[in-house]
Write a structure and sequence with these properties.
This protein is an alpha/beta fold and 454 residues long. It folds into two domains: 163 residues, Aspartate Aminotransferase, domain 1, CATH 3.90.1150.10; 259 residues, Type I PLP-dependent aspartate aminotransferase-like (Major domain) (Aspartate Aminotransferase, domain 2), CATH 3.40.640. Helix content is 37%, strand content 16%. A hairpin with a 2-residue loop joins strand 1 and strand 2. It is globular. Bound molecules: pyridoxal-5'-phosphate.
């Protein structure tokens, strides 16, 4: 008699059917994660850091299941990427169908419908009623670079203006556009020329300077230091992401957009982090009543598959000659299939409204913490993109050490929590839009306890 073959344990599947609760069965990180992390340290370049060294088995809804069987609350969405949730069923289905048909042609050799469909959706859904064109790329940084290329070609000018606290990526041009030296730039120069920096509106740290005045300050710098006629483009995030979730004062972006239009400067809005329902509108520009000439999107666009886009005025986008834009993988068919399913989900599954509800829950929780803890200098953000800035209560000096302690304690309790900010003193909340209120409240309670213990 032969004994029956041993049955392999089921492989956990991700998506919204994962049990939606925080549940720790080992210390964080657990032994299997520790083992994998030792392999990582021996095999992966040190510069590629890991915020929370747990290794993932499956994820979905508002949780991440690690290889030790711990379920963590996801307050990061892989940096605002999995807005529709990890392994979202519609995305899985679209990707599975596409991967079985063809995986790659290079769109600049032979075309396919998915690329065109993503372009049509973006042309239709991004702000402004003008005629638009789209080009697809792989990463946010690559799309920002292409937006700058296109603006320079269209205007015949070279100077590009970025702002304080900006983050636009890690390639050479986007490092130049990015404001913060450590860890993004230090030792990696020389940087691209003809990149200038101007002052931002940062209400918590500029005495609440009104938006139009903050814009006048920036414009005056640009006119005096560069000269409007030399400027190809302004590049700005509508809410600074890595720079600290800084929401500019009302009217700041609008005044910059108006000035750009009057001066023939291309107004490029980097919505890589703020895009796709994250802020309670499909695009954050809508909150400010701003219509970008070019809008750059990535992160939330394709449910986790690598894809990015530049969308904008037809006459600007079409100014580049045939063959001037592209790349081997840009607009990969699998990523495009994922994007079509993802963008439909934002539109049809109530996720814009859900982002607003998440704002209500997070804001209420964070403001009630602030009421009894003067170290929380500011609560800010929009939609499912909220943050607290931690300071010394007597001086409002940034407190990065406290920020690091709070996030480490939250990690140990099974909450994936990210920090940001030029001064490293901002804790940001970027949950998937599919997270439940129960998980939001449980995660907030963990942050409350972490603050109390710090
Ligand atoms: C993440 C980010 C980028 C860079 O995107 P990658 O895909 O990492 O290259 C650019 N701009 C903003 C605002 C971002 O948040």
């Amino acid at each position: 008699m032969t004994s029956p073959a041993p049955v392999a344990p089921p492989v956990p599947v991700g998506g919204p059917t994962l049990r939606q609760e925080r549940r720790l069965v080992t210390a964080i990180p657990g032994p299997r994660s520790v083992e994998l992390h030792a392999r990582k340290s021996a095999a992966v370049a040190r510069g590629v850091g890991i915020t929370l060294p747990v290794y993932v088995q499956a994820a979905g809804g508002g949780v991440v299941l690690d290889v030790d069987g711990n379920t963590l609350i996801d307050f990061g969405s892989g940096i605002a990427v999995t807005g529709v949730g990890n392994a979202a069923p519609d995305v899985v289905e679209a990707v599975t169908a596409q991967v079985a048909q063809f995986t790659h042609t290079c769109f600049t050799i032979t075309g396919y419908e998915g690329y065109v469909e993503v372009a049509e959706l973006l042309n239709d859904l991004t702000p402004g009623e003008h005629e638009k064109r789209t080009a697809l790329f792989n990463s946010g940084a690559e799309a920002v670079e292409n937006a700058v290329k296109i603006a320079r070609h269209y205007t015949g000018r070279q100077a590009v203006v970025a702002f304080d606290h900006a983050y636009h990526g890690r390639t050479n041009l986007t490092m130049a556009l990015t404001a913060k030296s450590m860890p993004y730039k230090s030792g990696f120069g020389p940087f691209a020329p003809e990149v200038y920096r101007s002052a931002l509106s940062y209400p918590f740290r500029d005495g609440g300077l009104p938006g139009p005045e903050a814009a006048r300050r920036a414009i005056s710098q640009i006119e005096k230091q560069i000269g409007a006629s030399n400027v190809a483009a302004l590049v700005i995030e509508p809410i600074q992401g890595e720079g600290g979730f800084i929401v500019p004062a009302p009217g700041f972006l609008e005044a910059l957009a108006d000035w750009s239009r009057a001066q023939g400067v291309v107004f490029i809005v980097d919505e890589v982090q703020t895009g796709f329902a994250r802020t309670g509108a499909l695009f954050a520009s809508e909150h400010e009543g701003v219509v970008p000439d070019l809008i750059v999107t990535a992160k939330g666009i394709a449910g986790g598959l690598p894809l990015s886009a530049v969308t904008g005025r037809a006459e600007i986008m079409d100014s580049a000659h045939v063959g001037g834009l592209g790349g081997t993988y840009g607009g990969n068919p699998i990523a495009c299939a994922a994007a079509v399913a993802t963008i439909r989900s934002y539109q049809n599954d109530g996720l814009i409204e859900r982002a607003r509800q998440i704002e209500t829950v997070l804001r209420r929780g964070l403001e009630s913490l602030q009421a009894s803890d003067a170290r929380i200098g500011d609560v800010r953000g929009r939609g499912a993109m909220m943050a607290i800035e931690l300071v010394d209560p007597s001086t409002a000096e940034p407190d990065p050490a406290l920020t690091a302690r709070v996030s480490a304690l939250a990690h140990a309790q099974g909450v994936i929590l990210l920090t940001c900010g030029t001064y490293g003193n901002v804790i940001r909340f970027l949950p998937p839009l599919t997270i439940s209120d129960d998980l939001l409240l449980d995660g907030l309670a963990v942050v409350r306890d972490a603050l109390a213990a710090s």
